[in-house]
Write a structure and sequence with these properties.
about 725 residues, eight-stranded antiparallel β-barrel, alpha+beta
Length: about 725
């Protein structure tokens, strides 16, 4: 088992125990017809099995098609399942699971009845359908590049620190130019201030309204329901009195994406999604395409969404909606699915959504949005029925943020493709066609499910690997924690003296199925140090490595360490049934049914510098603990921990010596493993555990959790 060796750097995420520990478990069992005990009644056959195995089983009743309901005691449930599966008289056994009615997610926001656009009707966006899959993730950031924001009870706690990008103090209307205060002071224009291109108007509170469509707090018994329950909003203020200049908008988009803007501090929260509910006449100006290219090249932002415009004109004549790389959104009516009377249209439209038209007699035709009662300066919280492509665009932005919650690695092209391929067809009687209104009406539920399917189909290489053919170089190994486009690799091997030595690598995806990064050696406080000081951890680059995967179970590991260049073929190490792992499949890692992952001390980051890789297969966990020896040098220990009680795994800790990493060939016969103590893992759920160990005369215990370095982490089951 020595080849199940270790992965480095502490990352941790725990998985839920598959069978309840303290409740009876109902099973559905089908006994074979004509089996050895077929002359007995089903009840007697189950009783005989219970007697032979020593497991508490009780026959409940017989079912249709010859199956039986059997009750297993809570503490023996896992053993009962294994015993029944292994019995030659059993055709099949499975858990008797509960099912639930497939109804819309209950939501208690008092203004919900006025938000018909959220429903699952043919002309609405099917937000309720999406909520059966996800409520979103707080790790997803949606930038609202607009008028700024007002604090509002309906969206409390959802705004990140943003920026006011308006350079002209007069346009900004807040007494100064650019600053870190993105709050909206109001954008009213008095009659005495009006010009031909700047009409008199009351304050719009537009940015707050747009943000509320995306992320108003949902199911909080207040105000309206947002589409994404958890995403964070990054307010970037670019529109003031009389709108805003392209120069400010360009800088605002750049900053939102995490690009450098002269004279402005870096954005610590770059956005995956950028919403532009703004626009103006003229085709796409020359400065937008290179900006959009740079935004996507930076790697964080996956979608820029723009309102198609409200001039009842071809979108080709308006920007930034007409710019390449922008998802342009037209507006349809929520009642009939027709093109809204004001909406721009044309071949440049990507998709449509019910942006709303306020008709007093039919209030549900509008988009109910958070606002403020102030006509000039801000006053009280409010919600008003609005209309415009300004409100169809954030519906698409919110749908994308939900998609990224279940599939954080989606590419720019994948997002656009999913939105279009899952769109609802325009209903009969609509004047919309795919020639002028895009692919159809936004279907948030279908888009989220399609995104989840993409995530599930994306290869995930998480787990323990060793030299191929399997067992040929038993004694060393490499663990991969694979999250998004990053693999954190911990290579457990031996230095030139034969001492256990580990190297780590943050490998970024550099091409199709290829990941590369620098190899680091690390020193730190001894494993027994209390407290462990993460500030004492030091790293030194000793080489570089590239991983090239030819399929889900085979890879080439090419590396240079201290000038020595070598390459090995890797395969997964299997000592049982391997789990299925998928990045982003379930944001709540506590629900995972397998503990395979990289773990570190809890709370996360408190003891950064050490960690433990857990590989779980068939009720055994092979753990590789990367830590430091008494002298601070890198040290790894391994354990094969067997399941001793629900959620508890225990085994002997081994210290290993072997041929140097560079030995050609590597001789597994020279690997020596010596017991030095014991380790026990006690899991409270899929994301929390206690790691208790003795090494020599040292006995300690630490709380551990999964290390998530690309949210929401990888989920194994």
């Amino acid at each position: 088992m020595l080849a199940r060796h270790i992965r480095a750097t502490g990352v941790a995420i725990a998985l839920a125990v598959a069978v309840p520990a303290h409740a009876d478990t109902r099973l559905i069992v089908k006994l074979k017809d004509g089996g050895a005990k077929s002359a007995l009644t089903p009840k007697a056959r189950i009783a005989k099995l219970a007697s032979d195995s020593g497991i508490a089983l009780a026959h409940v009743r017989s079912m249709a098609l010859g199956a039986d309901v059997v009750r297993a005691s809570g503490n023996d449930a896992a053993a009962a399942i294994d015993a029944l599966k292994a019995d030659s008289d059993v055709q099949f056994v499975d858990v008797d699971r509960r099912r639930h009615i497939e109804q819309d997610v209950p939501v208690n926001d008092p203004f919900l009845q006025g938000q018909r656009y959220l429903t699952n009707e043919d002309t609405s966006i099917s937000a309720f359908s999406a909520w059966q899959t996800t409520h979103g993730s707080s790790s997803i950031v949606v930038a609202v590049v607009d008028t700024g924001y007002r604090p509002h009870a309906g969206i409390a706690g959802r705004f990140l620190p943003g920026y006011d990008m308006i350079d002209d103090p007069k346009e900004a209307n807040d007494g100064d130019g650019r600053d870190p205060d993105a709050t909206d002071p109001g954008d009213w224009v008095l009659a005495s201030e009006a010009t031909d291109d700047c009409k008199a108007r009351n304050s719009s509170w537009h940015g707050t309204s747009v943000a509320g469509v995306i992320a108003a707090n949902t199911n909080d018994d207040q105000w309206t329901a947002g589409i994404d329950w958890n995403a964070m909003v990054l307010p970037v203020r670019v529109l003031g009195k009389c709108g805003g200049f392209d120069s400010d908008i360009v800088d605002g988009i750049a900053w939102a994406a995490g690009l450098d803007v002269p004279g402005v501090p870096p954005n610590p929260h770059p956005a995956q999604v950028i919403n532009l509910s703004l626009g103006g006449d003229r085709a796409c100006p020359s400065y937008y395409p290179p900006l959009i290219d740079a935004v996507y090249a930076n790697g964080v932002t996956r979608a820029i969404i723009a309102a198609a415009g409200n001039e009842s004109d071809d979108v080709a004549n308006h920007s930034p909606a007409s710019c390449p790389g922008v998802i342009a959104v037209a507006s349809t009516t929520v009642i009939s699915g027709k093109l809204a009377s004001y909406s721009n249209f044309g071949a440049g439209v990507t998709i449509s959504a019910p942006g709303g038209t306020y008709i007093p007699q039919v209030p549900v035709q509008g988009t109910l949005a958070l606002s403020n009662t102030g006509t000039t300066t801000p006053q009280d919280d409010a919600a008003f029925s609005e209309g415009g492509t300004s409100f169809s665009a954030p519906m698409v932005s919110a749908a994308i943020s939900l998609m990224l919650a279940v599939a954080p690695s989606l590419s720019v092209d994948q997002i656009a493709s999913i939105l279009q391929s899952t769109a609802k067809p325009f209903p009969g009687g609509s004047n919309c066609t795919t020639d002028i209104c895009g692919a159809g009406i936004l279907d948030t539920g279908a888009a989220v499910r399609a995104a989840a399917n993409v995530a599930a189909a994306t290869p995930n290489y998480q787990g323990l690997w060793w030299a191929s053919p399997a067992g040929s170089e038993s004694g060393w190994g490499i663990n991969f924690a694979h999250q998004g486009d990053i693999i954190f690799a911990t290579w457990f091997t031996y230095d030139a003296t034969g001492k256990a030595w580990w190297l780590s690598m943050i490998a970024n995806r550099t091409g199709a199925n290829t990941y590369a990064g620098d190899l680091l050696t690390t020193h730190g406080s001894a494993f027994s140090a209390t407290p462990f000081d993460p500030n004492a951890v030091t790293h030194a680059t000793v080489g570089h490595a590239t991983l090239t995967f030819t399929d889900a179970d085979t890879a080439q590991f090419a590396y240079t360490v201290n000038g020595i260049a070598q390459a090995k073929t890797l395969t997964r190490e299997l000592f049982g049934t391997a789990p299925t792992c998928a990045f982003g499949a379930q944001p709540n890692l506590a629900l995972a049914s397998n503990y395979q992952d990289l773990w570190w001390a809890a709370p996360a980051g408190i003891e950064s510098g050490w960690g433990i890789n857990l590989t779980e297969q068939s009720n055994e966990i092979f753990g590789t603990w990367f830590t430091y020896d008494i002298d601070g040098s890198p040290l790894w220990l391994s354990v094969l921990a067997t399941n001793t009680a629900p959620g508890v795994y225990s085994g002997a800790l081994m210290r290993t010596t072997g041929p140097a990493f560079s030995a050609m060939p590597f001789n597994p016969a020279k690997v020596v493993a010596t017991p030095v103590g014991k380790a026990t893992f006690t899991f409270t759920d899929g994301d929390h555990a206690t790691f208790a160990y003795t090494v020599g005369k040292v006995a300690q215990s630490k709380a551990i959790t999964r290390e998530v370095f690309v949210s929401p982490g990888t989920f194994c089951q």
